[in-house]
Amino acid sequence: MTLSPSSFAPRGVLLVHGAWHTGHAWDGVAAGLRARGVAVAVAELHRGSLAADTAAAETALDRLPEGGPAVACGHSYGGAVITGLPPHKVDHLVYLAAMMPDRGETALGLLAGAPPTDLRSSMIGDPAGTTTIDPEAAGRLFHARLGTEERARHTARLVPQAMAPGHQPTTDAAWHHRPSTYVVCTEDRVMHPDLQRRFATRATRAITWHSDHGAFASHEDETVDLLHRLATASRPAPAP
């Protein structure tokens, strides 16, 4: 079989941030991918519901060349968002210390059924309304492996989080239809590694990093390498 040059064109990459974060969390990863010639779209969530966040991610995906199919990478709550994307627009799903719910499951329900972490004691506000993360705890919670200056740079960009999306169930799960990679972060203080290992059994492939929750920062190079490999993996040309 002959492969056309377009068969080797990089897929675009969609990056989806987690709770309390914004798209700026991905600045380093996005720059690294673009430097390697990969088109990147970064979703901005905080739309008030899981459905609206997923729609925002799909809109970002549609801005990629040809509108996909793309490699979709979700961090933390962002995993619930990429799970709801239309499977035909996704080439590969990457869950970076992320929620990987099945149909009918909620992000907060899954957290409640897992061993406790430092997350609950670090939240300020009403878990049924809007919360923030205690500034004194945020650095250790998300970025324990970073130096003081890098921690401060990342935590300064945290924003209030409406909790409603975490209570809303997933209605479809793209990982049933498309290949997926789960990255387990063994030093995570937000989402217990045991819960991550449970999700990893749902994925096509699982890998382990000795990372804190903010793997996009502490393992920025590894994240870029992983996404670049998936974006540039060869694929056969469509049948004539």
Labels describing this entry:
240 residues, alpha/beta, six-stranded parallel sheet, 9 strands, 17% strand, disordered N terminus
How would you describe what is shown here?
- The chain has 240 residues and is an alpha/beta fold.
- The protein contains eleven helices and nine strands.
- The strands form two sheets. Strands 2-1-3-4-8-9 form a six-stranded parallel sheet, sandwiched between helices. A three-stranded antiparallel sheet has the order 5-6-7.
- β3, α3 and β4 form a beta-alpha-beta unit.
- α6 packs across α7.
- The protein is globular and about 45 Å long.
- The N terminus and C terminus are likely disordered.
Mean pLDDT, as a whole number? Answer: 94
Distance between the termini: 12 Å
Shape type: globular
Largest sheet report: 6 strands, parallel
**Number of beta-strand segments:** 9
Fraction of residues in H or I helices = 25-40%
Structural class: alpha/beta
Counting copies of identical and different chains, the oligomeric state is single chain
Strand order of the largest sheet: 2-1-3-4-8-9
